[in-house]
Specification:
The complex is a heterodimer of chains A (253) and B (343). Chain A has 253 residues and is of the alpha/beta class. Chain A has ten helices and ten strands. In chain A, helix 6 links the parallel strand 7 and strand 8. The longest helix of chain A is centred in the C-terminal third of the chain and has 16 residues. Chain A is globular and about 50 Å long. The N and C termini of chain A lie far apart (45 Å). The C terminus of chain A is likely disordered. Chain B has one domain: ABC transporter involved in vitamin B12 uptake, BtuC (Orthogonal Bundle), CATH 1.10.3470. Helix content of chain B is 69%, strand content 3%. Chain B has 15 helices and four strands. In chain B, the strands form two sheets. A two-stranded antiparallel ribbon of chain B has the order 1-4. Chain B is globular. The mean pLDDT of chain B is 91. Classes of the chains: A alpha/beta (253), B mainly alpha (343). Chains A and B meet through helix 2, helix 3 and helix 4 of A and helix 7, helix 8 and strand 4 of B.
């Protein structure tokens, strides 16, 4: 880090993002920061536009206005592929494996796109990414043959193989059982320890509770709450947007 | 230090040649060698039939690169077929021996496809398909205006008349064989390269490829140019064997129907598919040629049947996950077991 001050250096910043699809307001001046080395969770009720926001951050969706800054560079006008090569990896909510490519080839593709390295080094890097995401035993299996947990791991491995500074995770814990979520949490924490930051959209609150340094809640085009997991999850506005009125909560529990 | 610079816990070696692909490679070399010496053993009409077969095979290989791997369904590749035929005619009228004109015409089409790709790539999906057809029709209309090339009536290629039909047939056969081998080798080399891995990722999921850093437009353009170059090879071969050209037949959309048929039947997006498809197509054509309209009806019935019951085509059904690929495209990783067990 170059700045020695106590203010954490922001690896990624989205400033004043405005996005409407038809009459639906996804974002009405949203600001989000991901400090280097941190995990930021994003929650929000269904249909709030979390996946669309990740699209804006990764470059696949255009916002009406706003700025996206990554590593002090304005990347607003860059497409997905360019942002990926700069170091923004992403995973898809519904995994999108390459059906006929092996796990190794998925990682190798990412390594080759990210930088020019020798053949043997590219192989080593691909193996490392696969190893980190716990897929080494399936290294020769094609994407189309993987079960759900392994597809999610493959999404991670493909993003990690880009050697990214930031990975945008879109509901990687969705559809997994408790033990599997536990494994996923471990992978994310170990990658964070090795220097990758995460912006993680997730409905499985337990996963964010165990990993996130900060959580933001998107609802109705605004961040209605922001802070530590405990603060946000107990925030009245968050509870209301998820469960209705607090009165309903008390009777339900 | 980044994540990917840490020492790996796993020792792995990567092997690209499987026993199947090595066997196929040597069988391929043997078949090619047999085909090279074939004119010494088989008759003139068989040689001419093989030349015809080669032109269909080349078309199938070319269309598969574009639609099978690049996901770009074109119904206008006959543009390059026609332009290449006419380029050979033009060069022969200007004193270049037709056989020598062949590589020049092919290269010309490759270069021509670059600016055309900028036009065609403005369209997507079915609009792209129709756009390519329009481009082919424009090429037809332009060529038909050139009186020195015979205008709408067409022209014949006369400079090979000074050779005996037998010699001319053999040399054209060898030119065709060379184009087939060059097409197959260039597609195999492309697919083995970094560009090839990117192209196969686009074939499987374009959006995911983009998120993995693939410059989709650039990779597709490479596929488009290679496809145009290969289809030009078929155009060259057609004029060399028919010794005449006519705009309406050289630029006929029927060639697109044949290309689609061969690639769908054989298996889209596989290396082996177009070869199988071309053999099936040519066999059907020979078998049914005498039956007039029935030929096209049965061809259509076969296409419908394959789409319904073998949607992946013949090779795609035999090898759905591309595991038994006859060309060494894959990366087979061997993980050292003593290291793996430590986990």
């Amino acid at each position: 880090m170059t700045n020695g001050s106590l203010i954490p250096h922001n690896l990624f910043e989205a400033r004043n993002i405005v996005k409407r699809i038809g009459t639906v307001v996804i974002a009405d001046g949203v600001d989000i920061q991901v400090p280097a080395g941190s995990i930021v969770g994003m929650i929000g009720p269904n249909g709030a536009g979390k996946t669309t926001m990740l699209g804006i951050f990764s470059g696949s969706v255009k916002a009406q206005s706003g700025t996206v800054v990554f590593q002090d560079q304005d990347v607003t006008s860059l497409g997905t592929a360019k942002r990926a090569r700069l170091g923004i990896g992403r995973t898809f909510q519904i995994p999108r494996p390459f059906d006929k490519l092996t796990v190794f080839e998925h990682a190798l593709l990412a390594v080759q796109q990210a930088r020019k390295v020798s053949t043997s080094e590219s192989h080593e890097r691909a193996i490392l990414a696969i190893e980190r995401c716990g897929l080494i035993k399936l290294v020769n299996t094609v994407g189309g043959d993987l079960r759900l947990l392994d597809r999610k791991r493959l999404e991670m491995a493909r993003a990690v193989a880009l050697d990214p500074s930031l990975v945008l995770l879109d509901e990687v814990a969705g559809g997994l059982n408790n033990a599997e979520v536990g494994q996923l949490i471990e992978i994310v924490l170990s990658l964070r320890d090795e220097g990758i930051s995460f912006l993680w959209v997730e409905h499985v609150i337990r996963a964010l509770n165990a990993t996130a340094d900060r959580i933001v809640c998107l609802s109705g085009g605004r961040l209605i709450a922001e802070g530590s997991p405990a603060e946000v999850l107990e925030h009245p506005a968050v509870i209301e947007s998820y469960f209705g009125s607090p009165a309903f909560m008390s009777t339900a529990s | 230090m980044s994540v990917l610079e840490a020492p790996a816990r796993t020792a792995a070696t990567v092997n690209r040649y499987s026993r199947i692909s090595l066997g196929a490679l040597w069988s391929g070399v043997a078949v090619a060698a047999l085909l090279v010496v074939a004119p010494a053993f088989i008759g003139e009409s068989s040689i001419n039939q093989l030349t015809q077969f080669f032109s269909f095979l080349i078309l199938a290989i070319g269309w598969n690169v574009l639609a099978g791997y690049g996901g770009m369904v074109s119904i206008g590749q006959q543009a390059y077929l026609g332009v290449a035929s006419y380029a050979v005619l033009y060069l022969s009228l200007h004193g270049v021996l037709s056989w020598w004109a062949a590589p020049i015409a092919i290269a010309f089409c490759g270069v021509l496809s670059i600016p055309i790709s900028y036009l065609a790539f403005r369209l997507r999906g079915s609009f792209f398909a129709i756009g390519t057809w329009v481009i082919a029709e424009v090429c037809l209309l332009v060529v038909a205006q050139i009186e020195s090339l015979g205008g709408g009536a067409g022209a014949s290629l006369n400079d090979l008349n000074r050779f005996s039909p037998h010699t001319a047939g053999d040399v054209t056969y060898w030119v065709g064989l060379a184009i087939v081998i060059a097409s197959l080798v260039s597609v195999a080399l492309l697919l083995r390269s970094r560009v090839g891995l990117a192209l196969m990722s686009i074939r499987d999921d374009e959006l995911a490829a983009e998120a993995t850093g693939v410059n989709v437009t650039r990779i597709k353009r490479i596929a488009y140019v290679l496809s145009a170059t290969i289809c030009a090879g078929a155009g060259v071969l057609l004029i060399l064997s028919n010794l005449e050209v006519q705009p309406n037949s050289s630029f006929s959309v029927q060639y697109s129907a044949f290309m689609i048929f061969m690639v769908l039947v054989g298996g889209m997006g596989t290396f082996e598919g177009p070869i199988i498809g071309a053999i099936v197509f040519y066999a059907l054509q020979q078998w049914l040629a005498a039956n007039g309209a029935w030929y096209l009806i049965i061809l259509g019935a076969v296409a419908i049947a394959v789409t319904l019951w073998l949607p992946r085509g013949v090779w795609g059904t035999v090898d759905p996950h591309n595991r038994r690929s006859l060309v060494p495209l894959r990366h087979r990783v061997t993980v050292a077991s003593h290291l793996e067990s430590e986990e």
